[in-house]
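Fold this sequence, please.
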Amino acid sequence: MPAPAALITGGTSGIGKATAELLHRRGHRVMVTGRNPETLASARRTLPADVVVLQADARSVSDADRVAQEVRTRFGSLGTLFLNAGISRPAPVDAVDEATFDDLMDTNAKGQFFTLQRTLPLLTEGASVIFTVGIGVTRGLAGGSVTAASRGALLAMVPSLAVELAPRRIRVNAVSPGAIETPIWTKAGMPPEEVAERIAPRIPFGRLGTAQEVAEVVAFLASGAASYVTGENIVVGGGSGLGT
């Protein structure tokens, strides 16, 4: 019997890459997607040789079709779909332009939905679908309204998808990272040392989380240990927002 297969969108850096490494160590066949040439090249150099690294734009439905075909050709089926691709564009309301709004919605919501749609026929009975959402959706961050709206669309889908796919025993859950040490901060214009200085003191655990800590939660949701967990959102945030 072949090893279970996992597809991770946004899997060439940060949480996605850490999850790819962890699932591979636990015996999964793994495919990751990304669109940044630099992180794609790095992933090809540093991930295990049998992890499939595929260029794909999360905004593109035609790329979702191509990814699904690659999964069908290489793996035949999927046991885990980790819809992790996403971007953040912090900005106050009066500074958000239409292009930024569209890019956030297309990448964070539309792209993940259509990747699920296109790979749905490949999901095995009892498969696990996991969305990356983010703590900002439920706890609020100044300048994060559109990013939160785009990620929040995923969270709003989770209960309905969980009910719809339950007859196939497909579980649908979300993971919401808090402040995690990943490249997304630098992409958003905040150096890591600034993030640690400004944010860590407000977290009860007094530090940022790691991509590996989020990956462990994703791996749990992908495993048989979570066989009766569906329609849920697990926050991985070191207690962020508690006691304030």
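The chain has a mean pLDDT of 92. The beta strands are 5-9, 29-34, 52-55, 78-83, 123-132, 171-177, 180-181, 209-210, 233-236.
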